[in-house]
Amino acid sequence: MSDTATPATPAIASRLGAEVLGTFWLVFGGCGTVIFAASSGFDFDRVAIALAFGLTVVTGAYAFGHISGAHFNPAVTIGLATAKRFDWKDVPAYVVAQVVGGTVAGAVLLVIAKGMDGFEADGNMATNAYGGDGYSLLAVLIAEVVLTAVFLYVILGATAKAATAGFAGLAIGLCLTLIHLIAIPIDGTSVNPARSLGVAWFGGGDALGDVWLFIVAPIAGAIIAGVTHALIVGEKD
Predict the structure, then answer these.
(1) DSSP secondary-structure letter at 158?
(2) Residue at 6 is within a domain
(3) 88 DSSP 8-state letter
(4) pLDDT digits (tens, 9 = 90+) for 84-111
(5) d(Cα 89, Cα 81) in Å, to the nearest integer?
(6) How far is CA 22 from the centre of its chain?
């Protein structure tokens, strides 16, 4: 018998609380950077926005990762379950917690933003979109599927037993930063249904009309990664 006790898995209530807080922080920090910069007339470039999203994941991962695994994203939870790294029975509760966290963040962001005279939520809530004068639905679909799959490949690799301990949060946060650098001009970057839904509720009819794509595409990309990761790299855990 080993002298070192195996740490007990935190209670499900604690894990869900960590997912609510972590997803809140991701949406508040990332989307808040976009919303408040735009509402104040300050022209933030995509590097600053990408760093904001990446830093929320880095800080959230080290704050809450030991409790819940720091998913903060329904696509991540589903992808990990598909890869047999997470128990399917806990998936619904995690997804609900993440959507709640993102939605609370969106509501708080709206209340703060409305403190500025003349602020209009429609079109100014850091929502994701396709079509219009930008990229087509197909282009956005491909980008979101591919980038979410890559995100899951990085997560699965960085959290594997053979990976260097203690660096997963940094690798995953930097990956999300790079994903935003690529995709901000395409659709504002989602790869996370909770991030998209959290602000779409408050962003007007067009935002809610488009949000289905930012639910379906990230989940599809995550499932693809979950199914193929072990087949490609030969690493199962």
Answers:
(1) H
(2) no
(3) G
(4) 999 999 999 999 999 999 999 999 999 9
(5) 9
(6) 10
Q: d(Cα 121, Cα 3) in Å, to the nearest integer?
A: 57
Return d(Cα 157, Cα 102) in angstroms, integer: 26
What the block records as the tokens of 155 is 């997560």
Whole-model pTM: value is 0.94
CATH of the domain at 74: 1.20.1080.10
Q: Is residue 2 part of a domain?
A: no
Q: CA 108, 113, 117, 122 torsion: positive or negative?
A: negative
> Would 5 be classed as within a structural domain?
no
* Number of domains present in the structure of the chain: 1
Q: What are phi and psi of 125, to 5 degrees?
A: -110, 25
Question: What is the domain range of residue 62?
Answer: 12-233
Tokens in use for 118? 């003349």
pLDDT digits (tens, 9 = 90+) for 102-159: 999 999 999 999 999 889 999 899 999 998 778 999 999 999 999 999 999 999 999 9
What DSSP character marks residue 231?
Answer: H
3 inside domain: no
Tokens of residue 54, six digits = 């990446």
Nearest-angstrom CA–CA distance, 185 and 22: 26
| One-letter amino acid for residue 177 of the chain | T
